[in-house]
């Protein structure tokens, strides 16, 4: 059975809407595991009151995304999960989201799958997968190159985000869990799917499965909106910093082809140090 792992820290309103969207699924053959990492806004009490069917695991407040997800995955595997999905709490699933993901998984049982993302307010597509070049340091955004009539079915990508990532248990057995030691918050999802792809597990974006997201609510966007010296420091060195140089270095050393590592690192450092002020 599919187990859906959702790490949360506060923001109960988002978590509630996410869980309500899962209740509306056309395929309900799944279990939900919420990892509450020390929320202080009444999340634990509200979960027990409104969603008794959800399994809740409690963290210390210092798990961050990666360790929280790993805690949920371990629980899922102990309880017989044949597939695990990581899902952020600030998304809503279209009613046939699980149905479409499991349909694709049945046809490609070794594949890791992601979903097309739509802006929750406008329903315009905002993310449709990337094919990344380590040489040029530029992603080829499929939404920019695929004509509307080709935005269907599965498309191979270089990596996938963790907000709606379906992982077969066979991949978890071969690749292991997410790298919580070196990538405690950001890039762990891109790293995991990149490693899995190189180990022979296909990585696809599924245009039939749709998630509603809030692009402006990500930690990276909020940090950039509050531009300051402190924000700049957090951007480059904080655990939740979207431009964290340490995390980027680990990602590069693990995933970039060896001959390209020096150029890739220099390019990436420059982008992160300057990009904070340009976006």
UniProtKB/TrEMBL annotation:
<protein>
    <submittedName>
        <fullName>Glycosyltransferase family 2 protein</fullName>
    </submittedName>
</protein>
<dbReference type="GO" id="GO:0016757">
    <property type="term" value="F:glycosyltransferase activity"/>
</dbReference>
<dbReference type="Pfam" id="PF00535">
    <property type="entry name" value="Glycos_transf_2"/>
</dbReference>
<dbReference type="InterPro" id="IPR029044">
    <property type="entry name" value="Nucleotide-diphossugar_trans"/>
</dbReference>
<keyword id="KW-0328">Glycosyltransferase</keyword>
<comment type="similarity">
    <text>Belongs to the glycosyltransferase 2 family.</text>
</comment>
<keyword id="KW-0808">Transferase</keyword>
<dbReference type="InterPro" id="IPR001173">
    <property type="entry name" value="Glyco_trans_2-like"/>
</dbReference>
